[in-house]
Amino acid sequence: MHFSKEVVKLRDVWVAYSGSDRPAMCNINLTVPLGKLVLITGPNGAGKTTLIETCLGLLKPYRGSAYLFGVDTRSWRIRHARRMCGFVPQDFMKPPFEAYTVRHVIRLGFAPYKSIFESLTEDEDRRIRRVSELLEIEDLLDRPIGTLSGGQQQRAVIARALVRKPRALFLDEPFSSLDREGRRLISRVVREYVRAEDASVIIVSHDVNPIIDYADIVVRMENGRIVSGEGYA
Amino acid sequence: MLEFLGLALLAAVLSGNLCGAIGFYVQRLRITTLSFSVAHAALAGASIGLILNFDPVYSAMIVAVASALILGMIFARIEYGRELISMAVFSASSAVAIFAIYMSNVRVLATASIAVVLWGSLLAITVEKLILLLLTLFMFILYIIAYRIQIDSMLYDVKMAEAEGVNVQMHMLIMLFFAGLIISSSLRLTGGFLVFTLLYNPVAASFQISRKAHLQLLASSILGAASASFGLLVSYTLDWPVGATIAIVSSIILLSAYMMKVLVEAFRRRCLSRP
């Protein structure tokens, strides 16, 4: 299957939530090429999460077009484009009774690539160990994820996104539960990942400090509109 | 007589097991209201079978599976208003069921064919229906094993699974398809109005017993089988309607599991507060 080298392309995109009398995102134009680190920032309610979910096709525009790796997010082929992406949602926290181990949660990142009856390969297991060492969670692999702190859970979900070796990484508030050390670590890992894999990373964060120095493109949003950095113009 | 009871008991174990298992997935994937509509569509299908002089199990199966697939496809295309559509289908299905029973040639509510549709009947269990249940169980287990990692991914977090490229829509449709198949296969035992108690009570009880997903699935299947088989035996002994007896037994199991959890929690807290 042929995919475009533009990770994200949004053309005059408008998105609204049902029951709301105003659109959550208005007239958005944005292009993200491969190999770039993009920081999307803005105050609460600016439409940052809506933007990231629209890029992945989890939300569909009611006006305009959204493309992920050149695939229209309304098309059934969007599933194939998503397989080249990693995603860390804002609401990643699991309750204390969630019994999936960290190792299993990371393993689930391989689910879309598996055919029927296929189990994990040794190479994939090695990759899980390597990434968990990188994110300093190797001692937590056999712990139930629900028993971990917010910061530890966040690292586990980032590890799940990274083991997939995505061409595009979408991180929604990835520093929200991390301490200063954790922020520094994730910023470094993300930056090195962009360089090593020539991948794109799209980070949504209202706190710009940990990553702004490494960002190739900074997009600022307010009230559902891009106020600076529009179109990667 | 013993042979007939054995057949019914086996059907009860299989039905309960299947309902408990599908109930677990339906609950975890948050498609409970959708399955509620499918259960009532099965009831409408069975009642239509009465008018058309067609085996109610097969007509229930056709309508339940068709409604599950249609609703699943509609839900994949709309983001909001799903609950509303589910409730509309539930109400319409119930109305169709009552109209169909009213219009059928059966005049007395206690006749065997009506009993099968409304509150289940021991007499309705045949070898053919038992084979149907076995086939459904085999297909369901095969599906769960084949797509274990994808289903697990959805159980953990549907949004993440979808964003990563798991075919969430297809798996939701397959789950609904099995829900339709299992509900209509179990209709003969519990009746259309009570089939969903076997779908929801065992899984609710399993959530009181364990916090681990695989143990919840196991417990839900076992409790479903226990509710159906024990309910059937009580119904046979006391000459009670089988569907209602199964519903009572499953409710007692659910309440007992809840009470047990409350007691265990209280004991644990007491131990923790000791110096």
Explained architecture:
The complex is a heterodimer of chains A (233) and B (275). Chain A has 233 residues and is of the alpha/beta class. Chain A has 2 domains: 1-84 and 168-233, 3-Layer(aba) Sandwich (Rossmann fold); 96-165, no CATH class. Chain A contains 6 helices and 10 strands, in the order βββαββαβαααβαβββ. Chain A has helices spanning 48-55, 78-82, 102-107, 122-134, 150-163, 180-197, and strands at residues 6-15, 25-33, 37-41, 63-68, 71-72, 85-88, 168-172, 200-204, 217-222, 225-228. Chain A has a 6-stranded mixed β-sheet, with helices on both faces. In chain A, strands 2-1-4-5 form a 4-stranded antiparallel β-sheet. In chain A, helix 4 (122-134) crosses helix 5 (150-163). The longest helix of chain A has 18 residues, at 180-197. With 275 residues, chain B is mostly helical. Chain B has a single domain, classed as ABC transporter involved in vitamin B12 uptake, BtuC, CATH 1.10.3470. In chain B, 84% of the residues lie in helices and 0% in strands. Chain B contains 12 helices and no strands. In chain B, helix 2 (32-52) runs parallel beside helix 4 (82-103) and helix 10 packs parallel to helix 12 (242-273). The longest helix of chain B has 32 residues, at 242-273. The radius of gyration of chain B is 19 Å and the shape is globular. Chain B starts with a helix and ends with a helix. The interface between A and B is medium-sized, with 39 and 24 residues.
What's this, in brief?
With 233 residues, chain A is of the alpha/beta class. Chain A is 27% helix and 24% strand. Chain A binds chain B through residues 17-19, 56, 58-60, 79-83, 85-87, 89, 97-100, 104-105, 107-112, 114, 116-120, 146, 157, 160, 164, 170, and chain B through 79-81, 145-147, 149-150, 152-153, 156-157, 159-167, 211-213.
The termini of chain A sit apart by 29 Å
> What characteristic shape of chain A results from the CA principal axes?
globular
Would you tell me the structural class of the helices and strands of chain B? mainly alpha
**What sequence of helices (H) and strands (E) makes up the elements of chain B?**
HHHHHHHHHHHH
Please state the CA-atom Rg of chain A, rounded to the nearest Å: 17 Å
Strand order of the largest sheet of chain A: 6-7-8-3-9-10
Write down the secondary-structure element order of chain A: EEEHEEHEHHHEHEEE
CATH architecture of chain B: Orthogonal Bundle
User: Which sheet architecture does the biggest sheet of chain B show?
Assistant: none
Q: Class of the largest domain in chain A, according to the CATH hierarchy?
A: Alpha Beta
Helicity level of chain A, as a percent range? 25-40%
Number of helices of chain A: 6
Tertiary shape of chain B:
globular
The count of helical stretches of chain B stands at 12
| Main β-sheet description of chain A | 6 strands, mixed
Number of strands of chain A: 10
Terminus-to-terminus distance of chain B:
62 Å
